[in-house]
Amino acid sequence: xxxxxxxxxxxxxxxxxxxxxxxxxxxxxxxxxxxxxxxxxxxxxxxxxxxxxxxxxxxxxxxxxxxxxxxxxxxxxxxxxxxxxxxxxxxxxxxxxxxxxxxxxxxxxxxxxxxxx
Length: 117
What we know:
By secondary structure, the chain is α+β, with helices and mostly antiparallel strands. The protein contains 4 helices and 5 strands, in the order ββαβααββα. It is rod-shaped.
């Protein structure tokens, strides 16, 4: 069953006006259809890469959230501070910390949570 429908449409890819033979035609020709397909594939790859990057960035924060004892660098990452500012807060007494040695200072996670309670 053939139809003699002729509908004026605008190509979804290039924006040119064309005569479509069906009511569902989106592109003026095969070239625009292929180019639109490539653009969709490229956008999908970019979106996948973006999501992967976000997951890689947030992975250290997720690992820090489950620890009971944190280093100064981890506290700085968690609070979005520089390590020097974290040390300054420790020296001021805002954050309770324990020096295990000259090079190792730990902070209890519950002390960090108490800052915001």
